[in-house]
């Protein structure tokens, strides 16, 4: 079996590569070669900027693949390009989309079922704002999904879309869990915005890799979209309390007006899971149709804490302004 991963070196990529190698696949990754690569030697490397259609076509040549996993698709034109290039040359194409495709639909009931995708998109916020960038991300992911759906309708291009919420993994290049752990372990409080927070329904990176391997050897899910998300929905206080328990730390929270944290540019570093653009996908379709199952939140948080302790990873860049956070807490 021949598999191709577009991307493959950050966050989810290494886990996918490992799962496919274990399943007996010959694995190729295609990326720009910018991110440091510690993938196994047997993985074939191709280099191209996937936003350059001609370069992408040259890099792929005439190769065909049983499975393609696209981790770096962010807009409609790139979706049309890859569907055209791989037309007739791929058995299954898996697109990693985002739960953010629901957030640009407006005030939908949570959690979001796949059927909630259909409908108008809210107008864009003011350009140059954080809200605009988040809106654009969700809107362009929708453009990519729509282009793939058109390719399925017109010529049965064999896509399956997996819509992901926040992904917690050992290779998270945003170092969100590490940032929380560093703050817990210095004994000071974690600053979170005062007022209501969105409920958290994330997913473990290893479970995304398992969802992809679950598609192997079956025709189920072709031309369909599935939410991929953990079973538990928790508050941010519950999430952080469980993380502190796994790390054997005391949890101290200090609430500050969101506007103050934003004005000082301390968000999202001080509390990345306090984001106002936080999706909450309903995972029932994937469990019923694909048999997807998820690692309990308690179990995977313990794995992440153990990993970071063993790796002795340094505090992330977002921790460098910790002194300002403590001063704002009166310490």
Q: What's this, in brief?
A:
The protein is α/β, with parallel strands linked by helices and 331 residues long.
Structure description:
There is one protein chain. The chain has 331 residues and is of the alpha/beta class. It is built from 12 helices and 11 strands. It has helices at residues 13-22, 53-60, 76-85, 100-103, 130-155, 176-185, 205-214, 236-247, 258-263, 284-290, 297-311, 322-328, and strands at 2-6, 26-31, 44-47, 65-70, 90-98, 159-164, 167-168, 190-193, 203-204, 224-227, 253-256. α1 crosses α7 (205-214). The longest helix has 26 residues, at 130-155. The termini are far apart.
Strand order of the largest sheet: 3-2-1-4-5-6-10
Give, in order, the helices and strands: EHEEHEHEHHEEHEEHEHEHHHH
* Total helical elements: 12
3D shape: globular
Would you tell me the overall average pLDDT?
A: 96
- Tally the beta strands: 11
Head-to-tail CA distance between termini: 58 Å
Q: What class do helices, strands and sheet pairing give?
A: alpha/beta
Largest sheet: 7 strands, parallel
What integer value in Å does the Rg equal? 20 Å
Helicity, in percent?
Answer: 25-40%
Q: Which range does the strand content fall in?
A: 15-25%
Low-confidence stretches: none
């Amino acid at each position: 079996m021949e598999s191709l991963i577009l991307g493959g070196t950050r966050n989810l990529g290494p886990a996918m590569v490992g799962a496919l190698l274990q399943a007996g696949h010959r694995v190729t990754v295609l990326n720009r070669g910018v991110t440091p690569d510690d993938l196994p030697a047997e993985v074939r490397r191709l280099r191209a900027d996937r936003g350059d259609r001609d370069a992408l076509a040259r890099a792929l040549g005439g190769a065909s693949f049983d499975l393609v996993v696209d981790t770096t698709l962010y807009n409609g034109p790139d979706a049309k390009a890859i569907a055209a290039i791989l037309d007739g040359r791929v058995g299954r194409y898996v697109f990693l989309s985002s739960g953010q495709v629901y957030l640009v639909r407006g005030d939908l009931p949570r959690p979001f079922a796949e059927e909630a995708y259909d409908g108008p998109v809210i107008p864009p916020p003011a350009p140059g704002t954080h809200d605009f960038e988040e809106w654009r991300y969700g809107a362009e992911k929708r453009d990519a999904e729509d282009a793939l759906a058109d390719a399925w309708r017109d010529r049965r291009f064999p896509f399956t879309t997996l819509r992901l919420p926040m992904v917690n993994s050992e290779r998270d290049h945003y170092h969100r869990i590490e940032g929380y752990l560093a703050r817990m372990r210095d004994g000071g409080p974690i600053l979170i915005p005062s007022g209501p927070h969105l409920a958290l329904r994330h997913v473990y990176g290893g479970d995304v890799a398992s969802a992809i391997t679950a598609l192997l050897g079956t025709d189920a899910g072709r031309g369909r979209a599935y939410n991929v998300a953990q079973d538990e929905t928790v508050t941010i206080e519950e999430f952080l309390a469980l993380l502190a328990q796994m790390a054997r730390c005391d949890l101290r929270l200090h609430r500050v007006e969101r506007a103050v944290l934003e004005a000082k540019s301390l968000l999202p570093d001080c509390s990345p899971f306090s984001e106002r653009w936080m999706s909450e996908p309903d995972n029932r379709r994937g469990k019923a149709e694909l048999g997807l199952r998820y690692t309990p939140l308690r179990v995977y948080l313990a794995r992440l804490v153990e990993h970071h302790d063993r790796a002795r990873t340094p505090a992330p860049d977002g921790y460098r302004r910790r002194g300002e956070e403590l001063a704002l807490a009166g310490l």
